[in-house]
Amino acid sequence: MQIPVINASGHPLPEYQTAHAAGLDLRAHLEEPVTLAPLERALIPTGLSLEIPVGYEAQVRPRSGLAVKHGIGIVNSPGTIDADYRGEVRVLLVNLSNEPFVVRDGERIAQLVVARHETITWEPVETLSETQRGTGGYGSTGVG
Ligand SMILES: O=c1ccn([C@H]2C[C@H](O)[C@@H](COP(=O)(O)OP(=O)(O)OP(=O)(O)O)O2)c(=O)[nH]1
After folding, report:
1. Which segments constitute the dUTPase-like domain (predicted)?
2. Phi and psi angles of residue 11, each rounded to the nearest 5 degrees, phi first
3. What is the C-alpha to C-alpha distance for residues 10 and 82, in angstroms, rounded to an integer?
4. Which residues share a beta bridge with 80?
C-alpha cells in the first residue's frame, strides 16, 4: 500500500528495519533537544503529515528498546492517527525512569503501525448471546 506523506522533518522517511517488521520507526523533528525529567511528558513532533486510506488507521507505539533501557513510554499508547487527520504526527513521550532523558533531533522515538479497522453501526438490543465466559473477567479463570 502507498501512503501519501509530507515530510518536513529533514530526515529520511520512516523505514521498516527488517523485512517483516510491523512498525516503521518514527524520528523526532526538533530544533533543540528536549529534556524529559522523571515522570515528565512532552509532545514530540515528527515533521510528517500523512493521508491514511479510509478503512485504515496508524498506531503510534513505543519502542521496546527505549522502554527497557531508559523507561521511555508513550502516554496515550497506542496513539491513533485517523484516516482524516492531515496534521503533523506527534508522539506523546513520557519518561518513566528516575533519570532525565534527552530527546534529540533525528532520534528514533516510536514506531508507526498501519492497520485496518472496521467502521461499525450499533444494533441496540436487550440481551446478548450466552457464552461460557459470560460476564466473568479480570482473572475469573484464575491468575497465573
Ligand atoms: O499519538 C497521537 C495521537 C493522535 N494524533 C493526532 C492524529 C489523530 O487523528 C488526532 C486526534 O487524535 P485522538 O482522536 O486520539 O484525539 P482526541 O483526544 O480524541 O481528540 P479529537 O477530539 O481531536 O479527536 O491527533 C497524533 O498526532 N499522535
Report:
1. 12-142
2. -110, 160
3. 24
4. 59
Say whether 81 counts as a known binding-site residue. Answer: yes
> Which residue's C-alpha comes closest to atom 13 of ligand 1?
80
∠ CA 118-120-126, nearest 5°, is 140
Q: What's the number of CA atoms in the CB half-sphere (13 Å) around residue 59?
A: 12
**Domains of the chain by range and CATH?**
5-116 (2.70.40.10)
Per-residue pLDDT of the chain (144 residues; tens, 9 = 90+): 999 999 999 999 999 999 999 999 999 999 999 999 999 999 999 999 999 999 999 999 999 999 999 999 999 999 999 999 999 999 999 999 999 999 999 999 999 999 999 999 999 999 999 999 999 999 999 988
* Whether the complex's predicted ipTM surpasses the cut of 0.90: yes
CA distances from 66 to 96, 108, 111, 144 (A): 11, 9, 11, 28
